């Protein structure tokens, strides 16, 4: 079932290129809940969006695609009028997806270590360790990111870990300095406040968090690669959450 669901989502995302209305057949029109604040509800909202986007000759690359129970989640890059990188999360019931979340930002970089927002390892392994890795990331997010116990970072993150955030570089010092940064009023520049979801397949784990960045309500999606019980590689996107008056549906970002 997971292979078929992944294939359906890959076809759905590639439908952005073609505008093919059949690409949205994996979406259940009766139940579909859309959490992208800029997209209308239902399958027809997606079909209209894809048709509009296809007229700009877009390119879509599904870099990584994972499955976790009734969820399929992917790491994607988009070339519209501008280049963007995103994470897509879909919840399934049976053969169709019934709910969708995403987090997309402009593509930047490479960073000071020469890494892009999407390159690096993509091979899924260690499937029997999925739940251990999910628990590790949940503990890391709650302790180090939300709890701001930065002294605990070495227990979660390899000192030589590989960083794909365009503003950071490899290794712990860059991560620690970024998380410790404060604005002129002494408030954290980056503030994780709530962990909404942790999705995992083998050695890859995606966390979905809500918080603030530079004082703005922000959605944080972080993808981690785990090796021997420690985080060794990281990708992410951050997106400012629009005010409710700008939403095209009433389902909320999270």
What structural class is derived from the secondary structure elements? alpha+beta
- Span of the ends, CA to CA: 26 Å
Low-confidence stretches: none
What is the second-level CATH architecture of the largest domain?
A: Roll
What kind of sheet is the major sheet? 5 strands, mixed
User: How many domains make up the coordinates?
Assistant: 2
Structure notes:
The protein is α+β, with helices and mostly antiparallel strands. The chain has two domains: 2-107, Nuclear Transport Factor 2, Chain: A (Roll), CATH 3.10.450; 127-240, Nuclear Transport Factor 2, Chain: A. 24% of the residues lie in helices and 37% in strands. The protein contains five helices and ten strands; from the N terminus they run αβαββββααβαββββ. The chain has helices spanning 2-18, 42-54, 130-146, 153-156, 172-180, and strands at 33-34, 59-68, 71-79, 83-93, 96-106, 157-163, 190-201, 204-213, 216-227, 230-240. The strands form two sheets. It has a five-stranded mixed sheet with strand order 1-5-4-3-2, with helices on one face. Strands 6-10-9-8-7 form a five-stranded mixed sheet. The longest helix is centred in the N-terminal third of the chain and has 17 residues, at 2-18.
